[in-house]
Amino acid sequence: MENTLQTVAVRPNRRRDRLLTVFAATAVALLGWLVAAPLVGVELIARSGSTEQRVTPVAVVVSTLLAGLAGWALLALLERLTARARTAWTVVAVLVLLVSLLGPLGGGVGSAATLTLVALHLVAGAVLITGLRRTAAR
């Protein structure tokens, strides 16, 4: 009975902590965009094929939220499927972050845009990986 009560008491905090992590990563990425684009004046433009597109604050928020929610969903799934969910999730999350860097490295228009976009990926990824990993069942 005690274990059941303890588990029930922990779950709302875990959900809250995961939600706060996703929002924190989104806020940090948006703050990075605000500093780089309007304040410093970096033109954040990404190329996809022959099309160039400005990276807007909406794009930063939506992409970070989607990445965070996908990471959360994968962690929750792995917790149901394996006893080593924390380790498996961390490996997958780091690999996904590394693959995500290919976008700005290959598509950033200009060195300032490329460096800024890489930094946004790294900062959002660091917050998501450390925050969600911390909430994982051990």
TrEMBL record:
Keywords: Membrane, Transmembrane, Transmembrane helix. The keyword Transmembrane helix applies. It comes from Micromonospora tulbaghiae. The chain crosses the membrane at residues 20-46, 58-78, 87-106, 112-132. This is Uncharacterized protein. Pfam families: DUF6069.
